[in-house]
UniProtKB/TrEMBL annotation:
Residues 27-42 have a biased composition (Polar residues). Residues 1-30 form the signal peptide. The keyword Transport does not apply. InterPro entries: Gmad2_Ig-like_dom. Coiled coil: none annotated. Keywords: Signal. It comes from the Bacteria. PROSITE patterns: PROKAR_LIPOPROTEIN. This is Bacterial spore germination immunoglobulin-like domain-containing protein. Residues 123-205 form the Bacterial spore germination immunoglobulin-like domain. Residues 27-114 are annotated as: Disordered.
Amino acid sequence: MLKLWRMKTVGLTALVLLMLAAAGCSPAQTADSDQPGTNQGSAGNGGDDPAPNPDEPSTGEPQPDPKPNDTDTNTPPQSGDNEQPELAPGGEPAGEEPADNGKDPDSAPDEAPAPVAENEAFRIFEPAEGTTIDSNFVVKGQARVFEAAFSYTFEDGHEMLDEGHVMASVGAPEWGDFEFTVDVSGASSNTGTLTIYEISAKDGSKVHQLTTTVTLDAKLLQPAP
């Protein structure tokens, strides 16, 4: 029996070899084809090319340029609120009109009014000679006196109605502005005389005296004693 079984086995093996020979395959190739997981498409065995890796770029075609980075540090800065405005000649911002100060730039500078009385030390602008006075009045003018100090008197021909000392805005040799109020109460005559003068530093005398006369309204007059 054992001998008979061996003869059958040899006969089957010979039959398989004949079939393989007829098909053009060697036993080794048949064995490789029967192994699971064998890559039948390898280049060494004459099969198809391996499947391309999607993560690897193709070497046969030019690659497109990468997309620009939105955070590229070479991007020029955008203009912001901290930019300095462009200045036009003269220091004014370009496109802006200079501030209107209410004056015509082509107009002549303000000039002092013409004096109604004057000498080398004083100029009186008001009141004008012969002005009718019905209450206390304001005297305006300019003085060019030592240390800007001078004095005044006002009398009606009978009584000294008012007197005092005044300081101009600046002393000699500049002309300083002055303004003061004269009290006319107690007048008994319709003619009032204003005198302004400087006190001499040498002997205390009155120098550079300048006078102007005004008319006192009748309602101011009081009966003479």
